[in-house]
Amino acid sequence: MDLLKRNKAAWMKSCIISSVITLGGGCIGGVHFPQADAERYLREQGMSKEEAERITHLNPLTQEEYTKYSNSSNSNIRYAIALNPHTPEDVLMQLSKDRNMTVRQGLAANKNLPGNLAIELSKDTKCVLQTLVGNPSVPEETLLDIFDNKNIAPYWFARNPNCPERIRRYIQTQGDDLARRTLKENYKSLPVSK
2: which residues sit within 8 A by CB, 6+ positions away? Predict the structure, then answer.
């Protein structure tokens, strides 16, 4: 039983925040974890209960808190700040240059991502691009540019409820089964070819 507890604690520390906050109904970290555990982890890192709740619930923070947490040595905390839709653009710009890919994935999933940052992230790694193309706030021209010039599977675009029509038509006619099913889920009124 001790081994299980140690493994759980190590796992929590590596992905606790990213597994709690979702975009489009799917966990970015790929694993679901109770929100109470995320808050407990953040409190163990020295945060007050109120701060931990505001971060895990994606609530607005003070400018001082955005500055403090965006410069944290803990990448999970920076991830949560990057994902927070209330984070100011100057802080998001700083986080777009973060050396940690998971932090940039949080930014790519931010539902209020400014268009200029979407363009900057469109030059990032494949993992960041996969998150970015599923974000409904990314401008259509950026999505089309990524679709035309990067090797990102159609499934990732199909997850976006604002997927451009040209990409939807491609998925309907040439996409794989998973992409077509995902597209059908997101566009129930749009007939999807078999």
Answer: none
Q: Are 154 and 179 in contact (CB under 8 A)?
A: yes
Q: Residue 180's closest CA among 163, 189, 193, 162?
A: 193
Residue for token digits 């889920």? 185
Which mean pLDDT values do the consecutive 10-residue runs of the chain (194 residues) have? 43 36 35 54 80 79 91 89 93 97 94 96 96 96 96 94 95 91 78 47
Output the pLDDT for position 190.
Answer: 53
What backbone phi and psi angles, to 5 degrees, belong to 151? -95, 70
| Burial zone of 154 (CB within 10 Å; 0-12 exposed, 13-18 middle, 19+ buried) | buried
Q: Which residues contact residue 107 at a Cβ distance below 8 angstroms, ignoring those fewer than 6 apart?
A: 82, 83, 92, 95, 96, 98, 113, 117, 121
Query: How far is the C-alpha of 103 from the C-alpha of 83, rounded, in Å?
Result: 8
What is the reported pLDDT for 110? 94
Measured CA to CA, the distance from residue 103 to residue 97 in angstroms comes to 9
H-run or E-run covering 158: helix 154-158
- Do the strands 22-23 and 26-27 form a parallel or antiparallel pair, or are they unpaired? antiparallel
How many whole angstroms separate alpha carbon 7 and alpha carbon 13?
10
DSSP state of 86: T
